[in-house]
Design goal:
Alpha-Beta Plaits; about 35% helix; single chain; about 180 residues; 4-stranded antiparallel beta sheet; alpha+beta
Length: about 180
């Protein structure tokens, strides 16, 4: 049963590959992703049982050393987090729109998990660092009060780490705001 996720974000691509290999060799975890991210960083995420993910992340942090930018370990990750990361979440109707923006990939995943656990919201997307200078952001929807509570919970969690960029709640967003246009 995969109930936990762990992620390590590094400044070194070469060290990132070494950490990814170590995570997989340390315990029975599944690779969710390992890839480069802006601006020249590397991230690796694994999932599995809590004890296995914990062991893998501990070893990865030791190997990563001073190249580690940020990391996370979420023992009971909310089920909405994975579809929001992969972009497979389909929502046909939106309410209020909440956005949290952070300085790291690990912190945005932590913020999203804290937000969705705090209030009755649906995660729309967790955007991880690509083409946004290494930052991350999460979008969510629901009733205004729920979105406000969720955004506050996620933002407060990240503010303590000093990685919060900004947060916004839009009560009645225009549909065009959520469309990707080039």
């Amino acid at each position: 049963m995969q109930n936990a996720i762990g992620l390590i974000e590094l400044t070194s691509i070469a060290k990132g590959y070494e950490v990814a290999d170590a995570l997989l060799k340390t315990a029975a975890v599944q690779m969710v992703f390992n890839r480069t991210i802006c601006p020249g960083k590397f991230m690796v995420m694994v999932a599995g049982e809590t004890a296995a993910v914990t062991s893998s992340i501990e070893v990865g942090l030791e190997i990563g050393g001073d190249t580690v930018v940020d990391n996370l370990l979420i023992p009971n990750v909310h089920p909405e987090v994975f579809p929001a990361i992969s972009g497979t979440r389909v929502i046909t109707e939106t309410g209020a729109l909440g956005i949290i923006e952070t300085f790291s990939v690990a912190s945005i995943i932590e913020a999203a998990d804290a937000a969705v656990k705090a209030a009755n919201v649906q995660l729309l997307q967790i955007h991880l660092a690509m083409a946004i200078g290494g930052k991350g952001y999460v979008t969510m929807t629901g009733e205004v009060a729920a979105v406000t509570a969720a955004v506050e919970a996620g933002a407060e969690f990240i503010r303590k780490k000093g990685l919060l960029v900004n947060k916004v709640v839009i009560p009645q967003p225009r549909p065009e705001v959520l469309e990707d246009k080039i």
